[in-house]
């Protein structure tokens, strides 16, 4: 049977690991993990399924549970919990509306229990999915190509190298706006609007290990949301900070921290979640395929297990 998974980001790799009779179609697998820096928090949230999955993929590695602590910046003061109006202000700044979804702001959590692998620390997420890609390649499941057209009437799929064939089953992890271009699947009006996000990698202006006065928020928090600055979230990594914003930030520094790299005006902020599971016989998997802000690696894993268990 000709079964395909469209897209080789984390969602596609999880699906391909369990569905060995499916092939991933992607010219550049790993998605945003190919960027030269980690664009914000990438955590393997601790669940029973996630722990079992990592142990199966990486049986030789040691696992440990860690806690990521979240802060909320208002009026240049970082606190452990947001004020009553913070959520609506944050939604207005990032999406242009005061309406807020439960999945915004880390689903209301102020601490996130997550799994780190051996000595990889903050790189555990990327390490896991890099290893998954190696497994998929070893199995011969990767097709380095781009899909140009899907014909659901005749059940055919064509690729950019000119080849075409029949398909039995398709799982799409592609952004729905991309899928629309290769498959005219939408017979209803769906709001697939996005807002822009900008990412900035910045160096620490001083060695935070020497900041014994405890003024640096990274000494308490792993990442911080903000509703009233030119940035909307800052994530503290070992060697650098990543700032996110809704609009480009001018200048060569943020909060006195020199900007090293930037990616601006990426249309990847989902304005309103829909959570589409299946369209025209195609199973949707992942944040942008299901159009659901809630979908992260652990939710993707749960959905894959649902698919294989019927």
Helix content: 10-25%
Strand content: 25-35%
* The CATH topology of the largest domain: FAD/NAD(P)-binding domain
Number of strand elements = 18
What is the total number of structural domains?
A: 2
Structural class estimated from helices and strands: alpha/beta
- Tally the helices: what do you get? 8
Would you tell me the overall average pLDDT? 92
Q: Do you know the CATH architecture of the largest domain?
A: 3-Layer(bba) Sandwich
- Mind describing the biggest β-sheet? 9 strands, mixed
Distance between the termini: 18 Å
What overall geometry do the principal axes of the alpha carbons give?
A: globular
Low-confidence stretches: none
CATH superfamily caption of the largest domain: FAD/NAD(P)-binding domain
Order of helices and strands: EHEHEEHHEHEEEEEHEEEEEEEEHH
Describe this structure in words.
The protein folds into two domains: about 1-60 and about 120-190 and about 275-310, FAD/NAD(P)-binding domain (3-Layer(bba) Sandwich); about 65-115 and about 195-270, no CATH class. The strands form three sheets. Strands 3, 4, 5, 11, 12, 13, 14, 15 and 16 form a nine-stranded mixed sheet that branches. Strands 6-2-1-10-18-17 form a six-stranded mixed sheet. A hairpin with a 6-residue loop joins strand 12 and strand 13. The model has no long low-confidence stretch (mean pLDDT about 90). Helix 1 (about 10-20) packs across helix 5 (about 125-140) and helix 1 (about 10-20) runs parallel beside helix 8 (about 295-310). About 25% of the residues lie in helices and about 30% in strands. With about 300 residues, it is of the alpha/beta class.
């Amino acid at each position: 049977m000709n079964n395909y998974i469209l897209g080789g980001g984390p969602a596609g790799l999880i699906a391909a690991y369990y569905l060995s009779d499916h092939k991933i179609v992607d010219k550049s697998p790993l998605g945003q993990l190919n960027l030269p820096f980690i664009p914000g928090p990438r955590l393997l949230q601790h669940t029973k399924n996630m722990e079992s999955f990592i142990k199966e993929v990486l049986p030789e590695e040691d696992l440990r549970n860690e806690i990521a602590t979240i802060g909320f910046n208002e009026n240049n003061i970082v606190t452990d919990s947001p004020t009553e109006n913070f959520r609506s202000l944050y939604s207005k700044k990032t999406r242009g509306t005061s309406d807020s979804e439960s999945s915004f702001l880390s689903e209301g959590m102020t601490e996130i229990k997550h799994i780190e692998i051996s000595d990889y620390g903050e790189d555990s997420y990327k390490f896991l999915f890099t290893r998954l890609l190696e497994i998929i390649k070893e199995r011969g499941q990767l097709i380095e190509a781009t899909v140009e057209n899907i014909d659901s009437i005749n059940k055919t799929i064509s690729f950019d190298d000119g080849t075409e064939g029949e398909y039995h089953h398709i799982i799409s992890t592609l952004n729905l706006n991309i899928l629309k271009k290769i498959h005219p699947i939408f017979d209803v009006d769906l709001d697939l609007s996005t807002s822009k996000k900008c990412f900035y990698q910045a160096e620490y202006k001083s060695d935070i290990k020497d900041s014994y006065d405890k003024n640096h928020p990274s000494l308490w928090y792993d990442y911080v949301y903000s509703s009233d600055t030119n940035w909307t979230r800052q994530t503290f990594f070992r060697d650098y900070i990543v700032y996110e914003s809704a609009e480009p930030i001018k200048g060569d520094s943020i909060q006195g921290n020199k900007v090293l790299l930037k990616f601006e005006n990426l249309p990847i902020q989902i304005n309103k979640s829909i959570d589409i599971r299946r369209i025209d016989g195609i199973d949707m998997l992942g944040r942008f395929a299901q159009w659901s802000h809630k979908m992260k690696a652990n939710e993707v894993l749960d959905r894959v297990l649902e698919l294989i268990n019927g």
